[in-house]
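Q: Please design a sequence for this.
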C-alpha cells in the first residue's frame, strides 16, 4: 500500500466505510460518456454544458442544463438518459482493488455500503457488469430526495449500516461526492484518482490515493 498523494493519515480509526461507485469502485466512464453524448444530441444540449456534472444525480444535472425547458421536457429527458444508460454496459469493469477491499471488509466484519448517484436499477446493472459482489447496503439516487452534493445520501448510508456519519470513512472520486460527505459530517474523506485531478481532489479530501488498492485499510479501520 502506498503513501497518500495528498494529505496525512488521521490519528484515529473508522468503524465503517461508505464507497461511491462510478470512478471509485467501477470504471464506467466510456459508457457514461457515450450515453450522455447520445442524450445531448437527442435533446439539443451542448456537451460542454455537462462539465463538472460527474458524481451528481442525472436529475440534478438535467435541472442545471435544461433550466430553460419545461418540467415535462426535463422529465422526458430524465427518462431517456435512464434508458440509454441501462442499455450500455460495454467496457464497465471493476477498478483495481475493488473486489479485494470488499473481501477484506467482509472478513474483518467492518460495515460498509455503496452510496451512488446512480438510480437503483442502473446501480444494479453496473455492479453486475463489473462482476463486483453486491454489498448488503446500496444507497442510490432512488432512495433520497436530494442527491449529492447534498448530505442526504451519506447520512442515509451511515444509518443503514448502523453507524453515525462521524464514525464512517467516505471514499470518493469526485468533488460533488466529497462535498456530500463533508456536509453529512463524515469522519474522514478519502479521494481516489480516476476522473478528477489530484490537485482538485485535495481541496476537499483529507487524503488522496491512486486507487482503493492503495488505501492502507488496516491502518484506518477500527477492527483491523
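A: Design:
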Amino acid at each position: 500500500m502506498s503513501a497518500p498523494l495528498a494529505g496525512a493519515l488521521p490519528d484515529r480509526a473508522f468503524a465503517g466505510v461508505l464507497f461511491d461507485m462510478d470512478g471509485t469502485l467501477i470504471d464506467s466512464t466510456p459508457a457514461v460518456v457515450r450515453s450522455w453524448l447520445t442524450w445531448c444530441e437527442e435533446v439539443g444540449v451542448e456537451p460542454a454544458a455537462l462539465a463538472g456534472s460527474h458524481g451528481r444525480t442525472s436529475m440534478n444535472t438535467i435541472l442545471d442544463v435544461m433550466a430553460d425547458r419545461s418540467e415535462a421536457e426535463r422529465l422526458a429527458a430524465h427518462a431517456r438518459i435512464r434508458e440509454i444508460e441501462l442499455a450500455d454496459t460495454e467496457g464497465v469493469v471493476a477498478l483495481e482493488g475493488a473486489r479485494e477491499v470488499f473481501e477484506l471488509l467482509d472478513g474483518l466484519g467492518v460495515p460498509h455500503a455503496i452510496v451512488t448517484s446512480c438510480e437503483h436499477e442502473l446501480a444494479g446493472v453496473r455492479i453486475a457488469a463489473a462482476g463486483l459482489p453486491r454489498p448488503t447496503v446500496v444507497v442510490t439516487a432512488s432512495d433520497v430526495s436530494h442527491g449529492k452534493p447534498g448530505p442526504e445520501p451519506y447520512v442515509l448510508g451511515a444509518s443503514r449500516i448502523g453507524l453515525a456519519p462521524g464514525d464512517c470513512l467516505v471514499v470518493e472520486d469526485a468533488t460533488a461526492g466529497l462535498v456530500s460527505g463533508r456536509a453529512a459530517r463524515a469522519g474522514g474523506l478519502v479521494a481516489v484518482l480516476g476522473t478528477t485531478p489530484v490537485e482538485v481532489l485535495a481541496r476537499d479530501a483529507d487524503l488522496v490515493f491512486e486507487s482503493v488498492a492503495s488505501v492502507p485499510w488496516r491502518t484506518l479501520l477500527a477492527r483491523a
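Q: Thanks. Anything notable?
A: Strands lie at 6-7, 16-19, 26-27, 93-94, 112-115, 137-139, 168-172, 188-192, 207-209. Residues 115 and 124 are 12 Å apart (CA to CA).
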